[in-house]
Fold:
Amino acid sequence: YGYKVHMVVTKEGIPVEYTFTPGSYHDMQGLKQMPLNLPEGSILYADAAYTDYTIEEMLSDDGIRLLAARKANSKRPHKPWVEYLISIQRKRVEISFSDIAKYLPKTIHAVTENGFLIKLIAFIWGYTLDRMLKL
Structure:
């Protein structure tokens, strides 16, 4: 099964929201699927695939700031120090994905697509509980 996992994690690396999309979907579809029940003043750091000025403005109206890395030809480039901050903060998400991957076996046996997704959710929950118990 070809799926992407889109995840929002705290600065401690604890997943607070996640969704799955088919691998062929654009990353913004994953962000649009999430309810984003985040406190006002939250900052979302993301890679360049999550650049969407309309979504940035909508989130800003809700008090949430989306800081997505920009491509070189961006119409709204960030200052270099902001790009650096984004790259540093995004590492927390990448580390969380890497840590979750450590829990995964080399292959996941699932008879159905839903069974596969349920197993992925179980690994994410297991990782979340592990991170919360270590706080």
About this structure: Strands lie at 3-9, 15-22, 43-46, 65-68. Residues 3-133 form one domain. The longest helix spans residues 80-103. The longest strand covers residues 15-22.
